[in-house]
Structure formats: C-alpha cells, structure tokens
UniProtKB/TrEMBL annotation:
Keywords: Membrane, Transmembrane, Transmembrane helix. This is Rifin PIR protein, putative. The chain crosses the membrane at residues 5-23, 333-358. InterPro entries: VSA_Rifin (IPR006373). Pfam families: RIFIN.
Length: 378
C-alpha cells in the first residue's frame, strides 16, 4: 500500500509543475479569460511523505477506491491460492499415499510371489486383503490328489500286470511241461499197444498161428514182453515142440511129425529141404528166432512211430487245453486291474480338470490384482 501511495504522490508533483508553468506563461495575456483557480495540492519535495491530503475528499475517494480494488484483488488472489494450495495438498497426499502403498505392496509381493499368492494386507486398503480361499485349498488338494492317483495308476497297472504276468508265465511253463509229460506217457502207451498189435499181426502172418498152446497170442504177448525176442521165440518153439514133433514117453517117442499143420510145415520146411540135399537149412529153433527178430523189429518200429505221433498230437492238444485253462483262469484277474486303472484315470482327469479351472480362475484374479497395482502405480 505504501508503494502505491508513493507512486500517486510522485505523479502529482510533475502535474503541479506543469500547471504552474502554464499560469506563468498566460498571466500577461489580457485576451485570455481568467478562470477560477482551485486550491493547489502540490507537494514540495520536503513534504513528499507528509499526509497533507487527509482532509481532501477526492483524494480520500481515490484512496478508498484503490483500497477496495486492492482488497478485492487480494481476496481473489487468496481464494485462488486456497484452491491451488488445496489441490497441491491433495496431490501431495495422493503421492505420499502411493509411495506408502507401493512400499507395502513391494514388500508383500516379495514375500508372497514365491508361492504365487499375492496377499495385499494394508490398513489403508482393507478391501485388498487376500487370504487363502477354499478354491485355493481345493486347487492344491486336487493337484496333490491327481499327482497321487496318477502315480498309483501306473504302479497298480505295472505291478499288477507284472505279478499276474509272472504267475501266468509260470503256469504256462508248468502247463507245457505237464502236457509234454502226459503226451509222452500217452504216446508210450499208444506205442506199446501199437507194437503189441504189430508183433501179434506179424507172428500171425509169418507163422499162421493165433494161439500158443491153449492161450491166444493176445494173452501171451503184451506191452511188457512184445520186444523180448527170446521170450517169444521160446513160446513159439514150445508150441512147435508140442504140436509138430513126436512126444517122448519114457524112453521112446510116441507119435510122428505133424506135417499137415501149416505152422509145422512152415517151420520144418527149411529142415526138410536140407535133408533132401537142397543145402543146409536152419534148424527150427533158429528159423523161429530169426523170424521172431524180424517181427519184433517191425513191431518196435511201428511202436516208435506210433509213440512219436501220439506224443506230438497229445502234447499239442494237452498244451492248448492247459493254456486255455490258464488263460481262462488269469483273465478274471486282469478285469479288476483294468477297471481300477480306468477308474483311477477318470478320477485323475476329473481332478486335473478341476485344477485347471481353479488355476484359470486364480490367474484371472491375479491378473486383476496386478492391473489394480499397475493402476495404483500410475
């Protein structure tokens, strides 16, 4: 205010000088109409700072107007400054709050990002507090359950199938061994029977006999002696001696050689030919033994062939039958394992689907939280 007053007084001094010079210039000119001279308010240089205009109404009016305008401008300036100060204060408060929140968030995120859980705990923002929800617990539970069951499923399938496979292989080996043993036994029986039949048939064809003494060939020759040449030769020679040669009673022979019997004629024919000078023929015992050897060899060959054939066929048949029995026995054991594995796989799939859904929801929430944090940082 003092500065404005000084400016006004300094402006009045040159004005007063100009007016004085004007009157001095025009006081000797009669044609100029004299005017009323107003009270001079000029100030001398020594009275420059003396308030000698306190009783001047115009000066008071100017000063009052000036004061009013100045006060109004100061008042407007104060109002604008209040608004500006308030804005600055609000901005500063926001910046301070952001810095505080950023520090807290950085600290919380540093601690919680290791477990992928952002728990924003702040007294200023109670709505940002994130705790472990049921969805998070279920997500971890589904993950653990799926991991456990996913590990159990191949384990059950592996160990179950390995155990059953090992037991099945052992059973198949035992079945094959049993089939071979049974096939060999049945082949031996069938071969012996075939050998007996071949020997009986050969003796019948060679000697033309169906009985030895009073016994039929089938009761004399069996599976235990059909390959014994000496036994069969003795039996046939005994039959020859009884049927074809005279019997010894006391010290003399009773009867004559029976040449009407085909058997006797066949056995004695080589001897009779030798007696007529046709060479040296074998005696009846040698002839019988030679013929029996040939018949027994053919019977043994037929027995071996029959044994091999029956053994092969019966072994294959019994092996197939035993393998089918083993398969039929082990197949029901595979069904529970397969059902268990399928059930476990289905449960694992359900757990994985639930885990993926919960994980997607959690990531969505995390994305929103990060966007919110980014918005706060901006």
């Amino acid at each position: 205010m003092k500065v404005h007053y000084i400016n006004i007084l300094l402006f009045a001094l040159p004005l007063n000088i100009l007016v004085t010079l004007y009157h001095e210039h025009n006081k000797n000119k009669p044609y100029i109409t004299p005017h009323h001279t107003y009270t001079n308010r000029s100030l001398c240089e020594c009275d420059l700072y003396i308030p000698n205009y306190d009783n001047d109404a115009q000066m008071k009016e100017v000063m009052e107007n000036f004061n009013k305008q100045t006060q109004q401008r100061f008042h407007e300036y104060d109002e604008r400054m209040k608004t500006t100060r308030q804005k600055c204060k609000d901005q500063c408060d926001k910046e301070i709050q952001k810095i505080i929140l950023k520090d807290k968030l950085e600290k919380e995120l540093t601690e919680k990002f290791a477990t992928l859980h952002t728990d924003i705990q702040s007294d200023a923002f109670p709505t940002c507090v994130c705790e472990k929800s049921i969805a998070d617990k279920m997500e971890k539970g589904c993950l653990r359950c799926g991991y456990g069951l996913g590990t159990v499923a191949p384990t059950v399938g592996l160990f179950g199938s390995v155990v059953i496979g090992a037991w099945k292989n052992a059973a198949l080996k035992a079945a094959a061994k049993y089939a071979m043993e049974q096939g060999a036994a049945k082949g031996a029986i069938a071969g012996a029977e075939a050998g007996v039949d071949a020997v009986i048939s050969g003796l019948t064809n060679e000697f033309g006999v169906l009985t030895l003494g009073v016994e039929p060939l089938g009761s004399v020759i069996n599976v235990t002696n059909y390959m014994k040449v000496s036994f069969i030769s003795e039996k046939i020679y005994s039959h020859y001696s009884t049927t074809c040669t005279p019997s010894m009673v006391g010290y003399r022979l009773v009867g004559d050689f029976n040449l009407r019997d085909p058997f006797c004629k066949l056995v004695m024919k080589p001897s009779l030919a030798a007696s007529r000078g046709e060479g040296i023929g074998p005696r009846p015992a040698e002839f019988i033994e030679t013929t029996v050897k040939r018949v027994v060899a053919e019977g043994t060959k037929a027995a071996a062939e029959e044994t091999t054939e029956v053994t092969t066929s019966q072994t294959a048949l019994l092996k197939a039958k035993n393998i089918a029995a083993v398969e039929a026995t082990t197949t029901p054991y595979y069904t529970p394992i397969i059902v268990s594995i399928v059930a476990i796989v289905i449960i694992v799939l359900i757990m994985v689907i639930i885990y993926l859904i919960l994980r997607y929801r959690r990531k969505k929430k995390m994305k929103k939280k990060l966007q919110y944090i980014k918005l706060l940082e901006e």
